[in-house]
Amino acid sequence: MKFLRIKSKHVQGILEPNSPRKYQFQRFPQKYKSHVRKEVWDLSENSAGVSVSFSSNTSRLLIKWTLKNRFKMHHMNDVGVNGFDLYQKKNEEWHFISAGIPTDLKNETYLFKGLQKHLKHYRIHFPLYNTLTSLELGFDVNSDIKIINEKSPPLIFYGTSITQGGCASRPGLAYTNIISRKLNRTCINFGFSGNGHLEISIADILSKIDSAIFIIDCMWNIDKKIVLKNTRPFINAIRSKKNNLNCPIIFHEQYLSNLDHPDKKFIKSVVEKNMLLKKQIDNEKYKGSKNLHLVAQEGCINKDTEATVDGTHLNDLGFERFSHHLIIKLRDIGLI
Amino acid sequence: MKFLRIKSKHVQGILEPNSPRKYQFQRFPQKYKSHVRKEVWDLSENSAGVSVSFSSNTSRLLIKWTLKNRFKMHHMNDVGVNGFDLYQKKNEEWHFISAGIPTDLKNETYLFKGLQKHLKHYRIHFPLYNTLTSLELGFDVNSDIKIINEKSPPLIFYGTSITQGGCASRPGLAYTNIISRKLNRTCINFGFSGNGHLEISIADILSKIDSAIFIIDCMWNIDKKIVLKNTRPFINAIRSKKNNLNCPIIFHEQYLSNLDHPDKKFIKSVVEKNMLLKKQIDNEKYKGSKNLHLVAQEGCINKDTEATVDGTHLNDLGFERFSHHLIIKLRDIGLI
Question: Cα–Cα distances in Å, from B332 out to A222, B144, B190, B249?
């Protein structure tokens, strides 16, 4: 076999791939380390939403990867946290092929073998919750390999553990990855587990990205005080750059997985928080902010009560519904 | 708080609850130990598909459980493998309330607290892949508790890891549990991970159950040789008891998660195996076997390629589709 060491320049889903970084697939370049809280920085090293696309006629594909640490979660499996999945593009649609199931810090597994040597177009989604310290792909010695740098005006997602991908059963089922495949658009995942605090420091970084659509999904990680204090400055910070004066910014309400849940206090607190967010957005619109949108939670996952693993984090049913819902809303708004 | 130790007599989803057993929630009574292979027996101790239903006006519910061993899987999370989930019945529908997330061999967590003291109807689904050595529920000291023994002609499922519940994100999302809630029917889960071998020893045990519908979903665990050798004797063994001469028996084809998968050899082998199963079933019908049905795999999960974690085991999207599909088929046949 011959091996290709995958580097920053090969992948989608990271900011400024050509800027120096400590870990190849950390989502921010190194220069932003001092701009964000330590918790955010540490999580930003996780490869959530990162992928590599390539075409090859190899009959077998080996994947070798090393993880930074032995991170495990009780409500999410190891494939989503520490593993990979492979898709094939065929007739303009992506089809799931196989998963790279991790067993330890160092992992090595075939994603396929024994295939016919026809040229195919693949994408591999990276672990949602760990940091990769190395990644190599192994191909037939005599095969052709072409890295595909998929470039399109990006959708930028900023949010919580749910945005990061908790609790998809495999990386490709995080909602940002589903949307990326369904729309054939670059998506960048700035989900920071427990740390989607609607921070101005993040808006400052996001403001540097041109021609993007910004989707802000922080509500599970913030309280009413932060909604009140940060919504306006956050919008203003993104809009502070000339190129982003009128860029689309979409806020998403906090969803409720069970409107009939007997914990009425919790339901009430979420409803009130969502109302406060709506008020902030309405105020900004009234003051003249263009291309600012709020997506209501109604109907996003709660067709029944089955779409979460724990009442909060989406399972695969939830991610399928959430991504479908967001695509519909983006179409309704006229952004895609 | 006051505590209730849950025992065999309290639960649904086990065979002959009043017969002696080593572990309270093992699916077979002890007397069948010598009737099945060791692998099947060991797996039969797992509490897959077992549940307890009760009504109570308690404001808080504590769950304390002890697991037999530290069983973990890389492609399934700990909640599905070792944990619980709680549903509430309201307006004749079941609503997910919360999950009991395991962290160790001994676990203790609130499933809710701070609720209004109204009488509510609950169900708790048990771990899909471990064996419980003890289970206690804790209620307000002054609360009312009534165990509900839900009895209805049962649906009996015999099959593989997928039947057992691999890889649902929480126990309630195994397809047998979804079907049980949607139809308000008792379901018994005889899924044995890797060991759904269409064995006559299992048919002998199943034959003792009266007024049941038998759903046989073994195809992932058997090859063409076993399909050819065991299908007829399996049916005959169930039908050997007078009460089951004409009981409904439904075989399910092996599903394909990606019809366009580039591994054509694998696709071909499944298609051929399914054709062989159909031939066996058709032969039996021709010979006069009544109430024998085959459910084709087409459309059961493969609306897209997203319904599995690894190409084989269903994720929550897959279980939602599979249960919906089976309910439709049972209706089409006229059995429900």
Answer: 48, 42, 24, 14
Helices (H), chain A: 38-44, 78-82, 161-164, 175-183, 200-206, 224-238, 264-286, 316-333
Pick from B74, B97, B167, B322 the residue to mutate for testing the A interface (most A CBs within 10 Å): B74
Q: Judge: B90–A115 Cβ closer than 8 Å, yes or no.
A: no
pLDDT per position as a tens digit, A60-105 = 999 999 999 999 999 999 999 999 999 999 999 999 999 999 999 9
Phi, psi (5° rounding) for residue B309?
-90, -25
What's the token pair of residue B191? 């899924």
Q: Find how far residue A5's CA is from the centre of its chain.
A: 23
**How many CB contacts within 8 angstroms connect chain A with chain B?**
145
| Closest to B307 in 3D by CA, of B323, B295, B329 | B323
Q: Is the ipTM of this complex over 0.90?
A: yes
Q: Cα-flanking dihedrals φ and ψ of residue A31, to 5°?
A: -60, -15
Question: Is A319:A76 a contact under the CB 8 Å cutoff?
Answer: no
With CA atoms as reference, report the closest residue to A36 among A155, A196, A236: A196
Tell me, yes or no, if B262 comes closer than 8 A to chain A by beta carbon. Answer: yes
Query: Could you give all domains of chain A from N- to C-terminal order, each with its CATH number?
Result: 2-148 (2.60.120.260), 155-333 (3.40.50.1110)
